Amino acid sequence: MAQTSPPAYKNAKLPTAARVADLLKRMTLEEKVAQLYCHWESSAQRKIFVRGKLSETQLALVAPHGLGQVGRPSEGSGVPSEGFGGGNLSKGLDAYQTAAVTNQIQKYFVEKTRLGVPVLFHEESLHGNQAKDATVFPSHLALGSTWNETLLTDIYTSVAAEVRLRGGHHVLAPVVDLARDPRWGRTEECLGEDPYHVGRLAVAEIKAYQGGAKVERIGARHVVATLKHFGVHGAPEGGINVAPSFVDERTLREVYLPPFEACVRQGGSLGLMPAYNELSGIPAHANRWLLTSVLRGEWGFKGVVVSDYSGVSDLYKLHHVAADTAEAAAQALRAGVDIEAPNGNFYPSLVKLVKAGKLPVALIDQAAARVLTLKFNLGLFEQPYIDPEEARRVVGSAEHRTIARRAAQEAMVLLKNEGNLLPLAPGKYRRVAIIGPNADRCILGGYADQPKQVNTPLQALRQRLGPGTEIVYAEGVRLTDEGNWFSDPVKPTSSADNAPLIREAVEKCRTADLILYFGGSSEAIYREAWSKTHMGDRPDIDLFGDQNALLLELAKLNKPLAGFVFSGPPLACNALNDHAQALVQCWYLGQETGDAVADLVLGTINPSGKLPITIPRSVGHIPAYYSYKPSARRGLSLADVLPLYPFGHGLSYTTFGYQNLRISAPKISRGQSVTVQVDVANTGKVAGAEVVQLYVRDLVSSVTRPVKELKDFAKITLKPGETRTVRFTLTPDKLSFWNQEMKRVVEPGEFEVMVGTSSAQTQAVRFEMME
To answer: Which residues are part of the catalytic machinery?
Structure first.
């Protein structure tokens, strides 16, 4: 009897395109459509786990024709710990358990479905896999403060491994939105306010996730990355999440789209997620111009577009641009959304639309081919399973914790340091008061689960300040009840309840030699507002609650005071800034919070963070981003128009000098590049890292241009007395803009080049571009 050769799609030696084409020819319409949606057990109406066990009967009902993706398996909804190595169900599944569960689910699809098409598993991984025991790195905005592409490569290579080894293939990260309104609760999810800075760092993330630039095959410790949220999600009206964005096409192309474009063209991202909100009256999930004309037509994007959770249903239920579920599904697919997440609530109706002649099957084939291409290029047809023991060894490892600590060290921004209060001089302060609502907390931020270990500033400083120093502690004020990023409702602590806490703190500080204040905000106050019952956007950006009242009382004691601000967005901490001799913007530093703060306080490390976002003086100063137009900063009545701290600002325990700024030619021809050099010296007594920043202004142009734009940066480390020449190349692309005819051009004329330590502290030189 002659042996039947395996189908071409199972032949690993064939090109991916040939395998995809062969498989598509064998699939029914229903099987193709099934590749275009997900199953998320936490919110699905029909579950696949029954009394804690995977039910093949339920799987056959949920996915009778196969399935594209399963969402967030690490959450372990419906899965007991018995038989999977133990664990705390309230905190999801650990790495071993998750790997075992994903293997179980995968085995069904590989062995029990007609064609044996594997399923993809997706996870959240904004600053670490959102899963039990995974390493939690600093918040995304904190990572933006590092200005360090090498560090981000190390971080997201680690994150990719932790996700993949527990069964994940596709991460819903990175966030590439620009953060330009700190009232917005999702500000902490962004890398910063500047398109060039965000683009540089995000490209490093993409390469780390996927294992290189523009890779086709994804390695066994790497995953598919997903740029989000495509559109103008970071500039919603009033700072309200999901609200419309009123941005014209020029601003869109010059400010908000460049980071996405860089991640597609330079990083080769294989995934993208549209924004929830609308642009020019068209929701992003139905915007064919964005998702097809620009993304695929102009930039050459080859990957998959996955909806944000309920983004397709919002076309019908929120935006009211679709009359029913079928029309919403058709709009999204026609626009370019390949996958509906988190569940297949609308996309199954595509089958009826095709059969009724209302939708061409070619659109289904196109989207299904993109999904299948990922599955082949991830190697799932050859190796669909993972090793739970390897997951247990790698997830939350000591090596990854070391990287997390380094990230936390580099993320802190020293805003002021009068009299060199920090680092603390050994033996100078015999009694130190540690005060504040965040002193004994390790705030992980949104999209984080519970790591294997954490420590707080209070814990670390108690361990490391030494036996000759007495430490007294008081909470001072309480911000809210024990709410967190997930909790509803969140109850602010009343002033009446805080009054005795303030009195206690003041009394403990009376005999102290030094006060270390740890305040700011929390992930229960600023967070993603994902529903009307789960708010997270704020109408003001001052220190929350009764912190200013406490600070005014502490100021009366005339003690040396160092302040540490833990927050998602930048806060207008005027009272703390006025009364503290030293001030550190900490953001949320991840699981290594305590030790990293102690490292800075004691001088074990030298701070090198630079602000990735402007800190406004008040909510009335918004917008406060540095790259404003010439007519935008005329002044304010009886108030300082300048920000509290500018973009790019950040001090060190040493000092740096900039000399001999020079340019390769005073005049260049159109199309030529110009080289800019500057000598940077460490003029202090300790080694330190400096972020050298280069800004450009087009002095005369056919359309208005910003007063300055970041066009390059370099982070360098110098020993005391060392000088290094830093070189930058300004290419024509960095000098281009969109003209009145909406063409990208480089116009001849004079340009000013500014190089320095922040956007507000630079030296300048000019050159002219000739016709």
So the answer is: 308
Domains of the chain: 1-117 (no CATH), 124-394 (3.20.20.300), 401-617 (3.40.50.1700), 656-770 (2.60.40.10)
Q: What's the residue count for the chain? A: 771
CA distance 121 to 250: 38
Cα 47 from Cα 58, distance rounded (Å): 7
Pairing status of strand 227-230 against strand 271-274: parallel
SS3 700: coil
How far from the centroid of its chain's Cα atoms is residue 478's Cα?
28
Q: What are phi and psi of 527, to 5 degrees?
A: -170, 175
User: Per-residue pLDDT for 197 more than 70?
Assistant: yes
Beta-carbon contacts of 557 under 8 Å, excluding residues fewer than 6 positions away, are 506, 509, 510, 515
CB 138 within 8 A of CB 590: yes
Residue 182's SS3 state is coil
Percentage of residues of the chain with pLDDT beyond 90: 91
Residue 126 backbone phi and psi in degrees, to 5: -55, -50
**Secondary structure of the chain: what % helix, strand, coil (to 5)?**
35, 20, 45
What pLDDT does 495 receive?
A: 97
Q: Which amino acid is at 524?
A: A
Q: Which amino acid is at 177?
A: D
Are 242 and 283 contacting, i.e. CB atoms less than 8 angstroms apart? no
- Dihedrals phi, psi of 271, to nearest 5 degrees: -140, 155
Please tell me the distance from the alpha carbon of residue 178 to that of residue 710, in angstroms, as a whole number: 14
Which H or E element spans position 593?
helix 593-602
What residue has token string 């959240």? 124
At residue 514, the 3 state secondary structure works out as strand
pLDDT digits 0-9 by tens, 603-627: 999 999 999 999 999 999 999 999 9
Name the region of 667 (left: φ>0; alpha: ψ -120 to 50; beta: rest): beta
130 Cβ partners below 8 Å, 6+ apart?
72, 74, 123, 124, 447, 448, 449
**What is the reported pLDDT for 91?**
59
29-57: pLDDT as tens digits: 999 999 999 999 988 888 998 888 899 99
Whether 84 has a pLDDT exceeding 80, the answer reads no
Instruction: Give tens-digit pLDDT for 308-319.
Output: 999 999 999 999
- Residue 481's identity, in one-letter code, is D
**Arithmetic mean of pLDDT over the chain:** 95
Q: What is the DSSP letter of 293?
A: I
Q: Which two tokens stand for residue 637?
A: 């009545």
- Reported as a single tens digit per residue, the pLDDT across 624-655 is 999 999 999 878 887 889 999 999 999 999 99
- What SS3 state is found at 591? helix
Helix (H/G/I), strand (E/B), else coil: 99: helix
Report residue 244's pLDDT band, with 50, 70 and 90 as the boundaries: very high
DSSP code for 340: B
Nearest to 12 by CA among 357, 483, 286, 383: 383
Residue 201 Cα distances to 249, 255, 403, 415, 428, angstroms:
24, 16, 17, 22, 40
The Cα 330–Cα 59 span in angstroms is 26
* Interatomic CA distance for residues 655 and 682, integer angstroms: 6
pLDDT score for 4? 79
Q: Which contiguous run of DSSP H or E holds residue 444?
A: none
Report residue 2: phi and psi, to 5°: -70, 140
640 versus 694: the higher-pLDDT residue is 694
Closest CA to 563 of 445, 405, 422: 422
Classify burial at 308, counting beta carbons within 10 Å of its beta carbon; exposed 0-12, middle 13-18, buried 19 or more: buried
Q: How far apart are CA 475 and CA 496, in angstroms?
A: 15
Handedness of CA 194, 442, 162, 715 (dihedral sign): positive
Is the full-model pTM beyond 0.85? yes
The set of residues, in sequence order, having a beta carbon less than 8 Å from that of 702 and lying 6+ positions away, is 739, 740, 747
